[in-house]
Amino acid sequence: MATESGGGPTTITVHVKFSGRSIPISLSPDATVRDLKSHLQPLTNVLPRGQKLIYKGKILVDTMTMKSSEVLDGSKIMLIASHGLHQGDGPITKDASSLSSSRRIVEANRTEEKKPKISIEMSQLDRWKVTGVVALSECHLKVVPEEIWACGEVRVLDISNNSIQEIPAKIGSLRSIHKLLLNANDISDESIKWEGITSLKSLTVLSLSQNHLATLPPAIGALTSLQQLHISNNKLTSLPAEIGLLSQLQILKASNNRISSVPSSLGNCYSLIEVLHLSNNGLKLLPPSLFKMCSKLSTLDLHNTEITMDILRQIEGWEEFDERRRSKHQKQLDFRVGHSAGFDEGADKNEGR
């Protein structure tokens, strides 16, 4: 970064994330966002009007400068390109200007000879509205972008792997959402508005793993359509009794928390079928009705808990569960014949405990 005699920088370098790569661009702090887009055009093959630049969860405005947009040296910016606004088959290079006039005329004639096609230019917001899928994972977001609330019928919202702290009550406006992925952010008990999430009656998948949650509210029982709940790698010390109201729940992943016991109502989650992950917690007992009530359960991960195989064998319904578990185990082993990869069956490894 070059500096003036007065101490202010004459140039800054920003890093633009696009198509899996990071593009360094050096420019003046007084350069506009439009100037940045012009720099990016030959490097990305995306016309400026097809570029949407997102910084700290906000869309940069063309007329604003880097300084007024609070873009600093070393800042990371995400580029989202609109369909239909790319230039040809590859990035424009310095040699592109050397095309002869005759070649340009030939190419123009070929274009005119082609059958006319309807070109639909679709912005990111338009795509979200058409597909119902908002995918913003790993976009360096610190807040939920305001544009999401204008999307209408969103079916999937993936804002995982960012630095988002607050989940506002406004999320309850996404009435049609089925899958909500909020894992790997900075969400805490104080920054999540559960009244918004628990009003999403069509929600089937909720992922909140890798955050800073210490409690799961009783209101979670209102999500009666929920089929998957991922809450691993938090600071949870317990599960609310209302979790038993989730009769459609098939997968529960709650490993790597501080849970010392699970409510007996968990046995009411009779749709639990494939995965019940409770490893790396302080568990000593399971609900006595778990195996009897959850008659489809075939995988139980209790690694690094105080529950031994002797304890499991004393729970009513163990024999039936063990038969399902071993059957699934055998099928997976049969599938892996000829492969050297190790197999981890969960409760099997507690034999010596």
Strand content: 5-15%
Low-confidence runs of at least 5 consecutive residues? 87-121, 340-353
**How many individual β-strands?**
13
Number of helices: 7
Derived from helix and strand composition plus strand pairing, the structural class reads: alpha/beta
List the SSEs and their pairings.
Layout: E1 12-18, E2 21-27, H1 33-44, E3 51-55, E4 58-59, E5 76-81, H2 101-113, H3 124-131, E6 133-135, E7 156-158, E8 179-181, H4 194-197, E9 205-207, E10 228-230, E11 251-253, E12 275-277, H5 290-293, E13 300-301, H6 309-313, H7 318-335
Parallel strand pairs: 1-5, 6-7, 7-8, 8-9, 9-10, 10-11, 11-12, 12-13
Antiparallel strand pairs: 1-2, 3-4, 3-5
Salient structural properties:
disordered C terminus; 13 strands; 7 helices; alpha/beta; 353 residues
Overall description:
The chain is α/β, with parallel strands linked by helices. Helix content is 18%, strand content 14%. It contains seven helices and 13 strands. It has helices spanning 33-44, 101-113, 124-131, 194-197, 290-293, 309-313, 318-335, and strands at 12-18, 21-27, 51-55, 58-59, 76-81, 133-135, 156-158, 179-181, 205-207, 228-230, 251-253, 275-277, 300-301. The model is unreliable at 87-121 and 340-353 (pLDDT under 50).
